[in-house]
Amino acid sequence: MRPSAAGDLPGTLRAFGERLDRHMERHIRKEERDPFALFEERVPPAEMKRAGEAVARILGRPPLTP
Q1: 15: which residues sit within 8 A by CB, 6+ positions away?
Q2: Rounded CA gap, 29 and 51, in Å?
Q3: 63 in Cβ contact with 52 (< 8 Å)
Q4: Contact indicator for 64, 49 with CB cutoff of 8 Å
Q5: What is the total count of domains within the chain?
Q6: Whether 51 contacts 43, CB under 8 Å
């Protein structure tokens, strides 16, 4: 990914950003698949609602409503 000339730096940076984006997307998707799927399988709906309300409170946001 080394630029062949100083004028190639923008293209090199763009390619690096695209590669990083693909890597992060794969990583985030794995993180979402594993723990969140387990959470949905094992946590009762009422407890999920309480957890969501607690997170909203911590973030200073209104709770989500279905």
Answers
A1: 1
A2: 22
A3: yes
A4: no
A5: 1
A6: yes
The residue range of the domain holding 35 is 6-59
Evaluate whether residue 66 is within a structural domain.
Answer: no
pLDDT tens, position by position, 9-65: 899 999 999 999 888 887 777 777 788 888 999 999 999 999 999 999 999 999 887
Instruction: Return d(Cα 45, Cα 47) in angstroms, integer.
Output: 5
CA angle 16, 17, 21 (to 5 degrees): 120
Please report where in the chains the tokens 């890597």 appear, as a residue: 23
Whether residue 27 is contained in a domain is answered as yes
37 falls within a domain: yes
Residue 50 lies in a domain: yes
